[in-house]
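Data deposition worksheet. Section B asks for the primary sequence of the deposited chain exactly as it was used as input, without tags or linkers unless they were present during the calculation. Section C holds the resulting structure in token form. Section D is free text for depositor observations; keep each observation to a single sentence. Incomplete worksheets are returned to the depositor.
Section A, Depositor: J.P.
Section B:
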Amino acid sequence: MNETIEQYRIIRSARRKTAAIQVDEKGVSVRVPVWVTDQWVRDWVAKKQDWIARQQTLMAQNLEMFCLKTEKGAVFPFLGKEYVLDWCNGARWDVQFEGDALIVVMGKRRSNKKIDSERVEAYLKKWLKEQAEQIISERVRYWADIKGVQYNSLKYKSFKRRWGSCSARGEITFNWRLVFADKNIIDYVVIHELSHLTYLNHSPRFWALVEKYCPDWKEKRSYLQSKNAWVLW
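Section C:
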């Protein structure tokens, strides 16, 4: 059951045993067990006001620093390297790399009224999804073979809060925006999701399995957390 009280949202769950505060671009959410009273939440949030304010400041700085923009001259990541985004007209749509520049070649104009930046963004997202499917799928096959595990399906979506997921049915899904990151970071997420085929939780045994194949997973996880703004593009 969800409800809004003052400037934060309370999310109650019958399965939750502890309380937690989440600060993101949508605001402040307080996740609590169903039996927790509104008054307890108010008192707890009041005690956490300084921490919440710090998190909101850090989030704003993160969004300002890493939020991607489709405009000429904007810095754009691809496989861990930063490029300067540009575009030009051409015979057909294409993406080209020239030194530190990522250039989108726009095909002949059609009858639609979209401005150039919108057309570039639409094509660039399509191209990046194609690259993600090719690159990440190869890494999944590689690590599945090493770990000796099998998955039932592999999909790509536009998650707004996560980089990947694994269901109890062995269905693995990745955020295609992972293609912004270096392959070593992609490997961490792949190892993480494949490890859920063995442990469908985040227990100590799960993290021990992740660490077996990715000893520096904590650093890689922190890196991705610092790039949360990427998923908003």
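Section D:
Residues 176 and 191 are 16 Å apart (CA to CA).
Residues 1-5 have pLDDT under 50 and may be disordered.
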